């Protein structure tokens, strides 16, 4: 028997007798009691646990308190606290905090305030087994050619996750809303596959699928007043669930896809450094699964069974590259990836073919295809990411023999990025799909701003100080003015396409960097010239960011940064 195979249940002892004999347990197992399901009580494992290949516990320990117990205890605590504080209950109080955690203590209060109530958690870490074969990392060749399979994660779905997900109808509503909003700008999932998985009950589909559904619910959720995004109940449960799955040695595509959504949530709601770390986690996890295109990487997923599965893996890796690059925009701390797409690497197929599941007859471009070749929104976003990668390499990786060579390379990059920035809005207008193309459009604007900003700074801080620097600086400043004006027009399109608040759910957090870059440029122009035209442009962008801040808090953070800069400048001028 291989050391990586699990021993069969009811194994034979040294004297030839079975250690466990078939029979009936006196009570239901712990898992069935938690889920309030009928238990077969068969030994050594009930029918459900046997089918799920998980540990079956017939101990007499009392089951953890249910959600009804939590709610009843919370209600009693709030009533008691209300009596102690001499006032009625506030109907606007968050269900996740007691009045003592949301109001200040006064001199009329009787004694110190009652601490906030936190529902007790069960101990899901007990009994977790990590069966991941270490040979996959210690000797990948023997793992690859030895036919060793990574076991599926064996873990019960935590009670809090089940409560947050709700019943099958609620999960289906979450999926439908996800595909109507987030999927427009990050189409990495196969809707047909998820629909097929919904045929089975959630507890028979696997914990990684439950995690994916939970993260879908997380990414479509809006910020809640009075609750930090990092304390959102769904976010806290998702991060805790991810840690549990990691402890089991889970290695599945669903887990990577779920973490991509977590990274987008953290980026969109400005949760740092978590967003930066989660994006890096996705890169390493994608490499571990073997979907990065590295021919020497260990392939933990095995060969794809269908064209749809192969395309989904490719789109997932592109999703990893996109989120990893975008979370590094403002910090300029992007770690250059040795696995950058090559010119002959394929781009995702056209989105219409992907949605229809007709991959075999789909037209597919490659990374090196000319910009003039027509593609749809997601391949365009991938091209925009590639263009930004070239700018990052130009700034932080490439070496040039002379200033003239560097200036020539920067000019060529500017021309290529400008051509892409003109092409994408044209396709969006032709397809009448502003939301689908908005991410790619904005990312090209961010790329142009990033390229020009380095060369537009005063001589004392500029990258180049030789004879070419003055001409480069002039052209870079003109480039910033041009792209900033284009971004103002982009803001007008955002306002025109979001007349209702619910339309903001279709907006991608990717666009915020471009808006902030233009606003920062106009703020600098206002300080330099005091031109009213620049001030009006700045006000228009700032107003749009405030509007978007109700959906994505990184927009609100950008507004706060702009206001802080404006205040600092005003104080400095007065001094």
UniProtKB/TrEMBL annotation:
Residues 28-58 form the Zn(2)-C6 fungal-type domain. Keywords: Metal-binding, Nucleus, Transcription, Transcription regulation. This is Zn(2)-C6 fungal-type domain-containing protein. It is found in: Nucleus. One of its GO terms (molecular function) is DNA-binding transcription factor activity, RNA polymerase II-specific. It comes from Hyaloscypha bicolor E. The keyword Nucleotide-binding does not apply. Its main location: nucleus. GO terms for cellular component: nucleus. CDD domains: fungal_TF_MHR, GAL4. One of its GO terms (biological process) is DNA-templated transcription.
